[in-house]
Amino acid sequence: MTDHPQPAEELRAAITSQDAEAADLCIEELASADSVRAVLRLSDNDQSQLMTMLPNDHAASLLEELPESEAANLVSHLTADQAADILNEVNSDEQADILSRLSAADAEAILREMEPEEADDARRLMQYAGDVAGGLMISEYLSYVESSCVEDVLSDLRNHAADYARYQVQYAYVTAQDGPLVGVLRLRDLLLSKPGTSVSDLMIRDPESVNLLTPLRDLEQFFDRHPYFGVPVTDANGTLVGVVRQNAVLEASEELASQTLLKLTGILGGEELRTMPVRLRSFRRLSWLSINIVLNIAAASVIAMYQETLEAVIALAVFLPIISDMSGCSGNQAVAVSMRELSLGLVKPSEAFRVLWKEASVGIINGVTLGLLLGVIAFLWKGQIALGIVVATALAANTIIAVCIGGCVPLLLSGLKQDPALASGPILTTITDMCGFLLVLSLATAMLQWLV
Amino acid sequence: MTDHPQPAEELRAAITSQDAEAADLCIEELASADSVRAVLRLSDNDQSQLMTMLPNDHAASLLEELPESEAANLVSHLTADQAADILNEVNSDEQADILSRLSAADAEAILREMEPEEADDARRLMQYAGDVAGGLMISEYLSYVESSCVEDVLSDLRNHAADYARYQVQYAYVTAQDGPLVGVLRLRDLLLSKPGTSVSDLMIRDPESVNLLTPLRDLEQFFDRHPYFGVPVTDANGTLVGVVRQNAVLEASEELASQTLLKLTGILGGEELRTMPVRLRSFRRLSWLSINIVLNIAAASVIAMYQETLEAVIALAVFLPIISDMSGCSGNQAVAVSMRELSLGLVKPSEAFRVLWKEASVGIINGVTLGLLLGVIAFLWKGQIALGIVVATALAANTIIAVCIGGCVPLLLSGLKQDPALASGPILTTITDMCGFLLVLSLATAMLQWLV
Prior knowledge:
- Chains A, B: Belongs to the SLC41A transporter family.
- Chains A, B: GO terms for molecular function: magnesium ion transmembrane transporter activity; metal ion binding.
- Chains A, B: Its main location: membrane.
- Chains A, B: Homodimer.
- The structure is a homodimer.
- By secondary structure, the first copy, chain A, is an alpha/beta fold.
- Chain A folds into 3 domains: 7-131, MgtE N-terminal fold (Alpha Horseshoe); 143-254, CBS-domain, CATH 3.10.580; 277-451, Tetracycline Repressor, domain 2.
- Chain A contains 24 helices and 7 strands.
- In chain A, helix 16 (216-225) links the parallel strand 5 (210-211) and strand 6.
- In chain A, helix 1 (7-16) packs antiparallel against helix 2, helix 17 packs parallel to helix 23 and helix 20 (316-343) runs antiparallel to helix 23.
- At the A-B interface, helix 3, helix 12, helix 14, helix 16 and helix 17 of A face helix 3, helix 12, helix 14, helix 16 and helix 17 of B.
């Protein structure tokens, strides 16, 4: 890899001077992540120019490497004609992903300009969400009718070697004369057989397959159980319609895990890149922050109800944020463990009671430990046993409440078919804040005579 | 899949009655995730019994499916002899991962009982961390000297078909007579060639390779650029020593992403399963919580310094937790975006200034919006313009500070080769709490005459 101190600058210069060759060379020389970074830093206008300057297949590879949202944004700035030329060269699963992110009118305009066969494939895949087999599969696969023999397959492979290079072939599929999938051929078995052997003798019969609506979770589990490179997708009639590659499933899971992190902090749609416009980034973050401020005010209104107690024992104001924050942290640990166990498939939504029990035991140990620690500190600071008791009891009780709620909320949300990443945090924090404030201030009110 | 209401119960019954066949059948019938869940719910003792009851290769598959920490725990409860019999059947990369988690003495005892060849492979891989090529590679691959011809390769494949089934063969590697890697053969090219062709005419020369210490990040980038199923690993002399499969890299990245979530909430080592002992789970969570309580007390001590102001304007106590929590949320959004951009390779640690600038613009918009909102609420509640101004200014300023710090801290930590997942949260929250309290209370002190 050559040293490029400022690849984005170099690329911009090549675009400004309309030097197509230099731009192409610049992209080709960069590692994929570097070229993505450089392209994302260009203005929309420069990006469009770059795409029209590059050979279509190079532009297509670049498009496949960009995050989907950015690829769609880029395509939306091209003419339908230019976009179609490039999308013709993109793999069918990515075609569909990019086109589904455009407005229906834009997508239709591009589809009309694409090669009819490519457009049909893309239209078919666009009907399915990105997290089911129909949306993850590719249409580029090999299939032969069961009456073929090994020699037929080998000569087809030899004659179309160039076309098939793009297919990442590991298996060939065998169909009955009237359509349904009946078997799978492994390339290495072809290697070891006589040319006259019938593929129906060589194939693995009744192959595993999935249907168009099989969800990502089940596909993960499938590849977890079977060390295959791909699984055929069949429609309601058993006809082969596509292949889901293991890579596509692993990549989709990885993308999901990284989006979960963003959703947990309340970024709308789980997607933000700093190359997006400020307005959009601001809006996506604000939409959750403005709900959060309402929840915060609701929790803090508990404090307002106990103003008299607080005025009498102002030291409590120091402990309120400590207790609510510490319980929030303990609860979030339980949320994270539940989210991970859910994603690893180690726990089911129906097992909330088991989780409650498991969390309660950790909650009691940690709650009592932390409560005693903070209670002793409060006592040493003000020399009041009563203050120590209030603080210790409140933190211990609130920690137990927080871990129990934190452990169960993701399971309950997931059982209700809601996204646990999105709502677990706010629900937890609001409850622990309210409970924390209420515990400290009501205990203090009850023990007021020993506190003043 | 048959319906198993309580697979763990069924399994436990089979173990208690020493019915090896029933136990084996029970595991085989379950989907991988279900069998993992069932096994993890058994006591350590039942788990050990199960492993000795199953045929060694079935026990080995089960071991490969368990999370590594649990697999190691299970192996540690077997005799060295039993463990060795099972580990002989496990893939070399998993062997090394499991053995490295045991005490050196336990691992050595097992290695002595293993087949010498398997033990040598495992010893070699154990020298390397799990996130470099040396620790991710497998030793099961095909290699031929360059003087071989296609017929030699095909007859070797035919003669060892059973052994090679475990190799997930996609490529064969070609070495010079004296050792160094000189080429790669694709199976499909073997398919299309005459038996007498020399492999040196057919192979792809000067193949891409990585070395033993190539880090996971670079391997991800490699497979991002090259659509290969594996990459050969060579030592300092250019000799082929192993193969890193694309799957192993994707799985390691996925595992890392899910551990990041746990680390962010401060669970030591990024690993907790509810099947672990309560003592351990408690300790791992407490170690971070006890640091957090110190940070919290430090932040809250700011409140203690302004007790007089607070006593004079008790309404401020209601806004302190709102302002610190809201800024914390805004900052955590920026942390999550930076973590994701780092993991996607879209930003480098040296670009902290660019991130600062990008965050400042979002921070100003969101800070002013939220500040105005809360300021108006404060004014409406108490009818004091001064209270509204204090609250609005403090929240706006603290939001800007929080997003700038939140965006940059992960980059700075990553630049200092520290794990950004572990420390970003606590650093951010402590600073935003302190700044928030300080802003509200110092502003209020300055404007005290209009507030009382």
